[in-house]
Write a structure and sequence with these properties.
This protein has 279 residues and is of the alpha/beta class. Helices cover 33% and strands 23% of the residues. It contains nine helices and ten strands. The strands form two sheets. Strands 5, 6, 7, 8, 9 and 10 form a six-stranded antiparallel sheet that branches. It has a four-stranded parallel sheet with strand order 3-2-1-4. Helix 2 runs parallel beside helix 3, helix 4 runs antiparallel to helix 5 and helix 7 packs parallel to helix 8. The chain is globular, with a radius of gyration of 18 Å.
């Protein structure tokens, strides 16, 4: 990890040594998992303000929630708009459509939750594992998708097979890198939405959306700060714009700073800059 990345994580984590504030985000899991010992910790230590206990919360799950989160029914997730959003976004994550095509397909849908997997679908690793990615990693596309969901305005929704939060994954070295990536990333990414609630609701400004699989860049200006989000859903490294400030980069994935013409963002790479950066 870079020094900048470690500093960013430490700075964000320190804010949540105190009792956390939840942010609009959904965690979806089988109600049977309500008996597990770590579920109460989910209410105390994670930032999701909503749970979907499928098919409905059992007494153990209600007790674990401690009144700190609220529940919605699985039926609220299975809307036509949400499913259309999922279908288009999976194609973007897998590199099957361009950022411009994705924007055309999702614009005006009126979706209420952003998710990529459900109890009725394979897990995200299975949906993306055999798709080539520019990072050369087994989980490159999966983490790209989860990062996209965390950064987009709207309400992110993760099913229990997406994140290592409510049950143990099998002992599998290919899972391991994915777990480590998202355990490091998802908390800080959601904590940004606690600190800057307009990230959840403010319409972003699209700065670039390639017509072939490649770069998507959008920004949000909140008070004196500008948040700019970079995604490369293609395979080739792409040059980042001159306005990209490496000293402002938070939690980058696939950022190449060694190319003389750079910096470049590798395929399936993601980055966020905050200008001016937090001190």
């Amino acid at each position: 990890m870079t020094t900048l990345f470690l500093a960013a994580l430490m700075g964000l984590a320190s804010k949540h040594d105190e009792p956390i504030s939840h942010t609009p985000a959904v965690y979806w899991f089988p109600a049977s998992e309500g008996i597990e010992k770590w579920l109460p910790r989910l209410a105390d230590e994670e930032l999701f303000d909503t749970w979907i206990a499928d098919p409905k919360p059992n007494p153990a799950t209600l007790e674990a929630a401690k009144g700190k989160v609220h529940f919605v029914s699985p039926s609220t997730a299975y809307t036509t708009a949400n499913m259309k959003w999922r279908d288009a976004t999976l194609k973007l994550v897998r590199g099957e459509i361009s950022p411009a095509a994705w924007l055309n397909r999702t614009n005006g849908l009126g979706e209420t939750l952003h998710y990529l997997t459900t109890p009725k679908t394979p897990n995200l690793r299975s949906l993306t594992a055999k798709i080539e990615n520019g990072l050369g990693s087994y989980s490159g596309r999966a983490v790209f998708g989860e990062t996209l969901i965390c950064y987009l305005p709207g309400k992110p929704c993760f099913y229990s097979t997406d994140l290592f939060l409510t049950h143990y994954f099998p002992q599998d070295s290919q899972y391991e890198s994915w777990i480590l990536a998202m355990n490091d990333y998802v908390g800080p990414m959601l904590s940004l939405r606690v600190d800057y609630p307009k990230l959840c609701t403010q319409k972003p400004k699209i700065l670039r959306a390639d017509n072939i699989p490649g770069m998507l860049i959008f920004s949000q200006k909140i008070g004196p700060k500008t948040f700019t989000f970079y995604f490369n859903n293609g395979l080739k490294p792409l040059a980042l714009p001159k306005a990209f400030h490496t000293q402002s980069a938070i939690m980058p994935r696939g950022l190449d700073l060694d190319t003389p013409a750079g910096p470049f963002l590798l395929g399936s790479g993601t980055a966020l800059t905050i200008d001016p950066p937090d001190k």
